[in-house]
Design a protein that fits this description.
two-stranded antiparallel sheet
Length: 194
């Protein structure tokens, strides 16, 4: 609940900041009602667009997206409780994904794989395939990479297990058992879990 209020406060701050500081006209690609699409905004849209799309196509898509966003805000959909929950869930998922990526890279950088491990894995693959494999010189690099990834994944799983082991977690099975989940499509087109 506190997170929802933080998200709302952040969105309102961004809206107020956007209203107070007007971009330099030389940095505005288009104006859509009271919104200025800046060069940075447009570059971001370009980076998200399908390859092969022209600048004009990306601009037209950005204009339509902004018009739809303005219409949603005019209808107060941005204050809808379900919308706020979706934002909160997205924020959580994005933050977790970022943390796992960072820790994964950290573990990957720390992992070492010896030549003896690579040779043992190559021999195992060769036995499994009745000796019908590419020469060791061709396979050693990919095998080493795969072993590094496996070791990094194992370290990541151990790290998560350690986080869980060191946390104070108390489950209330009676409450959990009493919850009945029924999924239904609501009027807004979202899944309503009751």
């Amino acid at each position: 609940r506190n997170l929802s209020y933080l998200v709302i406060a952040g969105l309102l701050t961004a809206a107020v900041y956007g209203c107070v500081k007007k971009p330099d006209k030389s940095q505005v690609v288009a104006e859509i009602n009271n919104f200025s699409l800046t060069v940075d905004d447009f570059k971001n849209e370009l980076s998200l667009s399908l390859s092969g799309a022209t600048k004009d196509q990306v601009l037209q898509d950005a204009i339509i997206k902004e018009l739809l966003l303005q219409e949603a805000q005019k209808n107060s959909l941005n204050m809808n409780r379900r919308f706020m929950k979706e934002i909160e869930n997205y924020w959580k998922q994005a933050l977790i994904k970022r943390l796992i990526f960072i820790k994964g890279e950290e573990f990957l950088a720390s992992v070492k794989v010896g030549d003896d491990e690579v040779r043992a894995q190559y021999d195992f693959i060769a036995r499994e395939n009745d000796g019908k494999v590419k020469p060791y010189e061709q396979m050693s690099g990919p095998i080493k990479d795969e072993l590094r990834i496996r070791k990094a994944q194992a370290l990541l799983e151990q790290w998560v297990s350690k986080l869980k082991a060191n946390a104070r977690i108390k489950k209330y099975d009676q409450v959990l058992d009493s919850i009945q989940v029924e999924k239904a499509i609501d009027q807004d087109g979202g899944i309503n879990e009751q």
